[in-house]
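>> received
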Amino acid sequence: MSSIKVWIIEDDPDWLRGLTAFLNKEQDIEVIWTESDARQAQLTIQTATQAADVILMDIMMDGKPEGIELADEASRRTGARVIMLTSMEEKELIFRSFQAGAIDYQIKSDFESLPAAVRAAYAKQSTISAAAAEQMREEFRRLKLVEREFEVKKMEDLITPSELQLLNLIDQGYSQSQIADKLVVSLRTVKNHVNHILKKLRLPGSKEAAKKVKDLGLLNKDDDSTK
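>> returned
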């Protein structure tokens, strides 16, 4: 049975030696190359003279998250499956690692789980651990909130209070003629306002515009100052 060829890129030489010895005790795993210097690791990745099935990549190299860039290059150039190694669960760095092509991350203190992670990666199974999956979910939730906050701020800058009032009435089911009567303006004025809103929001209809601002939480259902 052929062994799983592993690279380890880790800037702590003591931990690197210990991890190498630990993995080499496994009958089906062979560490064929190690490196503690980020620049030298990059050169080796670029030439790829020694094929690897799985790469264990330290996120932090010399105090910087250089492992993320190396992971991106390694996954593209070698086709190896990259597992990130980290001393702490830094959500942003872990998320960036996945964006760079890593398939999982492992906490260094839980090194005993590495053989199983290496085997799963080699088998091209879904190697994302429960902890990693939760990190991903949390980061996506955070990004969604940031995106929503940006959209709300953009919409608040784009739509005037009077236009919001108009969209509020549309959301409540009022026709344009009813809105004209309610606001004591001409139907033409209402139509002009609606067209102006649709141009700003780049939407095809008033109902879509009302739904857009409603979904962002900018409409107050109880607000009807025209009563």
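>> The chain is about 55% helix and 10% strand.
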